[in-house]
Design a protein that fits this description.
By secondary structure, this protein is mostly beta strands. It is about 10% helix and about 45% strand. It has one domain. It has a 6-stranded antiparallel beta sheet with strand order 1-2-3-6-7-8, with no helix packed on it. A hairpin with a 2-residue loop joins β9 and β10.
Length: about 180
């Protein structure tokens, strides 16, 4: 029994020691984040899962992300939005469900798109015919530079506005309760 214990201990040390000697892997340069909007009773209404690229001294809109081209709205995998109940986006009703969220940034306005295709990488496989809704919203100038691409919800009458911003620009997308 003692020999079995010593043999097990030696095997454990031979396996674990090299793992501990390795350096901790580098963190993701565009970490994932979640923006949530909840009702007053804390019931989730909207969830967005996205990756947050860093400005890192780069000119973003019009350069890194050209105006007029479909963007995954973040980095890495396509941004995912989940509606826990039917919602109005702009003047269009969207059924509860999970969608990909794309944008087409412009100098004066952005087109915001919810698409049926999920679990995709970037905007490489984007298909317009799979769009569920498209809304346009004015592009706004940020008061100060937004270093990491960021999303948050701002409560509004009967819903919330999804704020998306990076570099010197942001947009607000209205989500309201469907009647």
């Amino acid at each position: 029994m003692k020999a079995l214990f010593i043999t097990s201990l030696m095997l454990t040390l031979l396996i674990v020691a090299p793992l501990q000697a390795q350096e901790f892997p580098e963190a993701d340069k565009s970490p994932m984040d979640i923006a949530m909007f909840r009702a007053q009773d804390k019931t989730p209404l909207i969830r967005v899962i996205y990756s947050r690229p860093l400005k890192n001294g780069r000119e973003i809109f019009g350069k890194l992300q050209p105006f007029g081209e479909v963007w995954r709205t973040g980095a890495n995998e396509t941004t995912e939005i989940k509606l826990y109940k039917d919602m109005m986006i702009g003047d269009q009703t969207v059924k509860a469900g999970t969608y990909s969220l794309f944008t087409i940034p412009g100098e004066k306005e952005w087109t915001v798109i919810l698409n049926k295709d999920t679990d995709t990488w970037g905007a490489f496989g984007y298909k317009q015919e799979r769009d569920v809704v498209r809304v346009t919203t004015p592009a706004r100038k940020a008061d100060k530079t937004i270093e990491f691409f960021s999303m948050t919800f701002k409560p509004s009458d009967n819903g919330a506005d999804l704020l998306m911003g990076w570099d010197n620009a942001y947009v607000e997308v209205p989500f309201t309760n469907a009647m």
